[in-house]
């Protein structure tokens, strides 16, 4: 079995090579992003393994199929970058990694909250320059405040449990069945507008679907408690990036922590330090002292990377054995 991994880095090579000891597949690691132009690199590979910022539209999938690819083995939980209808039309199975380390992403969201609240980047920069004053570093107790969790899947539940441990009141919003573990901790499931209006911190943990695209837009930001904190470690498209600048400028949004960004493709996972940033909105966001942007690293722990590699390769083995698992399909 031959597989090619696009958008791969040394850490992908290390973890997949180690996990592959149990399978013995022929792995090829390609640093290039996958799109309709680079799909030719996958010619002769039965399995293609893309990452979150690769483009798997109809044109790309058709070229992959013509080259012999029959399975798309995502090494991510999200699949909004894949044209699932086109994949099904071509008879190509798409499988994902539904859960790797929910603790990794949830704990990263908590880290953003703590760093923003206590102004840790600013504090560290000042003490390195010999400034040990406290002016401008005033934070607030999380204990007794309200956190809104939008999306209570595996990651959202882990995040909610952590925040309940800080002594926060947890409000949750999810179209599915309320999570019993959060309810046991005193969480309340409420309409989205109620969550936005009552939460001191709002954290996004839902998938990017047509129904959640720009879930947080200008109107939603206006409904939030003035000065509240917004955290997004889910998908960039959940938040309308253009609306953030105005909300930050007028103080409606008090703090912003992003690990994902709507237009992160071509920016995140690359070193652009020697070039001017071409995304004007992102450049403006990075100028605010109450904004922290990390480059989609929430998943990036040793445990999560190992689990991603293991599950991806197990998905391939299951498909090859005729018992596919973790498959995703186009909406009916």
Q: Tell me the domain tally.
A: 2
User: In which order are the strands of the major sheet placed?
Assistant: 8-7-6-9-10-11-12
What is the top-level CATH class of the largest domain? Alpha Beta
Q: What would you report as the Rg, rounded to the nearest angstrom? A: 21 Å
Structural class: alpha/beta
CATH architecture assignment name of the largest domain: 3-Layer(aba) Sandwich
SSE sequence, one letter per element? EHEEHEHEHHEHEHEHEHEHEHEH
> Could you please say which CATH topology of the largest domain applies here?
Rossmann fold
The total beta strand count reads 12
What is the residue-averaged pLDDT? Answer: 96
Main beta-sheet annotation: 7 strands, parallel
- Tell me the distance between the termini: 32 Å
Distinct helical segment count: 12
Low-confidence stretches: none
Tell me the β content: 5-15%
CATH H level, superfamily name of the largest domain: NAD(P)-binding Rossmann-like Domain
Overall shape: it is globular
Proportion of helical residues: 25-40%
Task: Report on the architecture of this protein.
The chain is an alpha/beta fold. The chain folds into two domains: 2-100 and 301-320, NAD(P)-binding Rossmann-like Domain (Rossmann fold); 102-293, NAD(P)-binding Rossmann-like Domain (Rossmann fold, 3-Layer(aba) Sandwich), CATH 3.40.50. It has helices at residues 10-19, 58-66, 84-90, 102-117, 120-128, 154-165, 180-184, 192-198, 218-223, 241-249, 280-285, 302-320; strands at residues 2-5, 26-29, 47-49, 71-73, 93-95, 146-150, 169-173, 188-189, 201-204, 228-232, 253-258, 291-293. The chain has a seven-stranded parallel beta sheet, with helices on both faces. The chain has a five-stranded parallel beta sheet with strand order 2-1-3-4-5, sandwiched between helices. Helix 2 runs parallel beside helix 3 (84-90). The longest helix is centred in the C-terminal third of the chain and has 19 residues, at 302-320. The protein is globular. The chain starts with a strand and ends in a 12-residue tail after the last helix.
């Amino acid at each position: 079995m031959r597989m090619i991994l696009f958008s791969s880095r040394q850490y992908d090579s290390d973890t997949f090579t180690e996990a592959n000891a149990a399978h013995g597949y022929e792995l090829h690691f390609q640093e290039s992003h996958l799109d309709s132009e680079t799909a030719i690199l996958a010619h002769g590979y039965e399995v293609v393994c893309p990452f979150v910022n690769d483009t798997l539209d109809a044109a790309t999938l058709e070229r992959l199929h013509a080259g012999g690819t029959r399975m798309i083995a995502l090494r991510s939980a999200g699949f909004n970058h894949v044209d699932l209808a086109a994949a099904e039309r071509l008879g190509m199975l798409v499988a994902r990694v539904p859960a790797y380390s929910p603790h990794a992403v949830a704990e990263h969201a908590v880290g953003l909250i703590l760093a923003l609240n206590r102004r840790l980047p600013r504090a560290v920069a000042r003490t390195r320059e010999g400034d040990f004053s406290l002016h401008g570093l005033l934070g607030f107790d999380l204990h007794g405040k309200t956190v809104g969790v939008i999306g209570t899947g595996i990651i959202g539940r882990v995040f909610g449990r952590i925040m309940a441990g800080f002594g926060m009141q947890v409000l949750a919003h999810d179209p599915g069945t309320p999570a019993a573990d959060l309810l046991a901790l005193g969480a309340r499931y409420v309409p989205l507008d109620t969550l936005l209006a009552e939460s001191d911190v709002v954290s996004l943990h839902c998938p990017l679907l047509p129904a959640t695209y720009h879930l947080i837009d200008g109107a939603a930001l206006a409904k939030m408690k003035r000065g509240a904190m917004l955290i997004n470690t889910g998908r960039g498209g959940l938040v309308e990036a253009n609306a953030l600048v105005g909300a930050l400028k007028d103080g409606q949004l008090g703090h912003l922590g992003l690990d994902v960004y709507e237009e992160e493709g071509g920016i995140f996972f690359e070193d652009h330090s020697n070039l001017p940033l071409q995304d004007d909105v992102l450049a403006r966001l990075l100028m605010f002292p109450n904004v922290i942007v990390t480059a989609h690293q929430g998943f990036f722990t040793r445990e999560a990377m190992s689990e991603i590699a293991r599950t991806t390769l197990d998905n391939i083995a299951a498909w090859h054995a005729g018992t596919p698992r973790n498959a995703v399909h186009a909406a009916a």
